[in-house]
Amino acid sequence: MAAKTLTIDGKQITAEEGETVLQAASEAKINIPTLCHLDGVYDVGACRLCLIEVAGVPKLLPACTTKVAEGMEIKTDSERLRKYRRMTLELLFAERNHVCAVCVSNGHCELQTLGYSLGVDHVRSDYLFPKWSVDTTHSLYGMDHNRCVLCSRCVRVCWHIEGAGTKNIAGRGTKSNIITDLNMPWGDSDSCTKCGKCVQACPTGALFHKGSTVGEMERDRSRLEFLVTAREKKQWIAAD
Amino acid sequence: MDLAGLVDVVYSPVVDVKEYPENVDVCLIEGAVCNEDNLELLHKIRQRTKVLIAFGDCAVTANVPAMRNQLGLGNEESVLQRAYVENAQFNQRVPSAGDGIVPTLLKRVMPVHEAVHVEHFLPGCPPSAANIKALVTQLLAGGPKLEGKQIKFG
Predict the structure, then answer these.
(1) pTM of the entire structure?
(2) Chain B residues contacting A, CB < 8 Å?
(3) CATH code of the domain containing A182
């Protein structure tokens, strides 16, 4: 593998060819905010929070799907990036009904954490207050569409780690939503193996263990790491 | 307690003044804008106050009170019906606006900054005592600069 040298935030770094800017930055201990990215699952660039500035490229690029190149000059933090990241978050909050105070993930939510980390003290856009349902037909898990940010982590772990292909995305724009199989109640699904990876992967309170109440939904991401290691290296070892 | 000596509390649920006074420096506003009484008082407060602070998640995001917005426009009657008739054991009757008991509900519950201009925001449900102290202290020193967990929703 050929090595590439590039500059991130003024710091000279070396990365392997084929790595993404996000991977290279993370190895150099440079933090880029992410929401749809999940270690061990392929990236899709859905949330646009990891946008970066690349010298010579007029538009902003997502760090998670942009591959490193020789001589790249990258900025991961600037007034412009902060402006867009904040706007993206505010639009996510405005698009569905995120009521942190009564959410199962209050205090353990990636959307909530990003909100305060990136300075969102209020949302400037009008809230849409859409009408979404809650699917509690599954014996173990629930799905509350009000809290979904459409990061597609659940879809990706379901298809590419579990290989079940139960979770999908249907619709366009604000009508997009996560569906089960061909849009049926989750409890009626034949393809769902009840593995719960989607629940562990969810960044918000959209997917939850049935019976959890406000603030109780804590996730165990090491389960996912364990399964990816098992699949890729055939090593069934628990993360320490 | 250090702060108590620096401010005069001129209007609050625990102050025995019924009319919002003129020339107020700072007002911390709790709660979402749900009915016509809220809206009228809010406009009066804005006129008579230099700095408004949306205080707590209900004021900042409209929060739980705004969950009725998900029922769509025209939910004013159905929520009253639910509260005063369907869920009532005795005296099942929707109070009319003329009774002076329940103010007319707005079509849509709003966060405070959707109705009037707001200078600063303190989210939290509820905002912690430490964050309230930090906000007021910073305000006396020139302007609030809350950051990180201090502005966490929920």
Answers:
(1) 0.93
(2) 54, 57, 60-64, 66-67, 69-72, 108, 111, 113-114, 118, 121-123, 125, 146-154
(3) 3.30.70.20
